[in-house]
Amino acid sequence: MEDELHTARDLFAQAAELPGDFHQAEISLDFMDIALDIDHSLKKAESLLEKEKHQQALSTLNEAENELKNFNGTAVNHLIEKISTSRESIKLAQLEKLLNSEPDMEQLKSLLWESDELSAGEAAEMTESIREKIVSYTFSHASEQLNSNQFNDAQFLVEDGLKYAPDSEKLKSLKATIEKEQTAFENAQVQRIEQAVNTAAKDEQLNETDAVEILSIEVKEDNQGNLIVSGEVESVATIPIETIQAEYTLSTQEGTVILSNEVYVYPEKLFPGEVGRFEFTHFDTGQQKEAPVAEIDKVTWYTNE
After folding, report:
1. Residue 278 and residue 255: Cα distance in Å, rounded?
2. Which intervals of the chain form a coiled coil (predicted)?
3. What pLDDT, in 10s, does the model give residues 49-106?
4. 156: containing domain
5. Are residues 160 and 216 in the same domain?
6. Rounded to whole angstroms, how far apart are CA atoms 47 and 268?
7. What's the number of domains the chain is made of?
8. For residue 267, is the peptide bond before it cis, meaning its omega torsion is within 30 degrees of 0?
């Protein structure tokens, strides 16, 4: 029990050589050989730990522990406790090395589970350090998703992070922020849709009823006394319009109608902001005492929508 293993073995060997059938001494002597092997394994594991060969060290301890499965008692428990202590030290060192290698989120989760299983005092600090890294990782990536308006992804990341750090005020605050930002974004989106619908309705009305602005119309008399009516119109629609027709009236200065006519604008299709022209020559209208008055009565057009 004081780890004087060689001395203990010698004493058990002496006891086994005494006259009589001392079976317990022989069992204890066999156990001491195993205990010495385990002591050697513990020292080997410690050496492997110094070389950062953590997995080999853990395998060495597992093999040593298996040698004790057919024994029980206080001395056996003592050795098992020593093996457990050594195992926790190795696992703690292994976790610390992995933690310093900038693990990703999934690796951090695994490290947290392993750290939680350890009972050493240093493990509590290790667990808290891993948990802080999970919080930082989650906060950073969720914030990126939030900045891109990927609210569901951001919410998923935060809720997943809270599974491993349920008391994190940082993540709780971010979760509340995501919810508020999502609500604000959705409300703004509804307003944008309503505004777009209203704008579309106005555009549709414009395109159907007020797509053409009359820029000019005039009437002249050529050398043969023919009346030439010409003018310009502009498309104020939001979409292309085509087959534009202008209906006009020629009247005397006193308002007496001389004639009415329809003429098509060219080019045949006008895009928003483009200007179209029309011209028509009237023959045999008779000699006019004074220049007639030209007035457009109506303009019609077609849209593709």
Report:
1. 23
2. 54-81
3. 888 888 888 888 888 888 888 888 888 888 888 888 888 888 888 878 877 777 888 8
4. 105-183
5. no
6. 93
7. 3
8. yes
